[in-house]
């Protein structure tokens, strides 16, 4: 039986932490198009365009509108610095 892996998502702005939680998936508005991060995603760095960060945990979906920013994905940890 496969072990379910979580992704740890951390979204911060200059003013405050907007999200800090375990999630099942994260969709981000990359400057070259939207992309989704699932468990064991390859490491990456990307700039973000205006849009929404959409994340799902336990069947519940949340959204964070952003004006831009950057994301780093590594070892099931998604670190996002945004302008809101």
C-alpha end-to-end distance: 41 Å
Structural class: mainly beta
The DSSP helix count reads 0
Helix content: under 10%
Number of separate strands? 9
Corresponding CATH superfamily: F0F1 ATP synthase delta/epsilon subunit, N-terminal
The strand order across the widest sheet is 2-1-9-8-5
Low-confidence stretches: none
Radius of gyration, Cα only, in angstroms?
Answer: 12 Å
Mean pLDDT metric: 95
How is the topology of this model organized?
Blueprint: E1 7-12, E2 17-23, E3 25-30, E4 33-37, E5 44-48, E6 51-57, E7 60-66, E8 68-74, E9 77-83
Parallel strand pairs: 1-9
Antiparallel strand pairs: 1-2, 3-4, 3-6, 5-8, 6-7, 8-9
Structural features:
5-stranded mixed sheet, 0% helix, mainly beta, 84 residues
């Amino acid at each position: 039986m496969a072990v379910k892996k979580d992704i740890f998502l951390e979204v911060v702005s200059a003013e405050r932490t907007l999200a800090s939680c375990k999630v099942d998936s994260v969709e981000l508005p990359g400057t070259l198009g939207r992309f989704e991060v699932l468990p064991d995603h390859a490491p990456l760095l990307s700039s973000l365009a205006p849009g929404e960060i959409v994340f799902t945990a336990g069947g519940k979906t949340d959204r964070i509108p952003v004006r831009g920013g950057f994301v780093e994905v590594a070892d099931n940890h998604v670190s996002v610095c945004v302008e809101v």
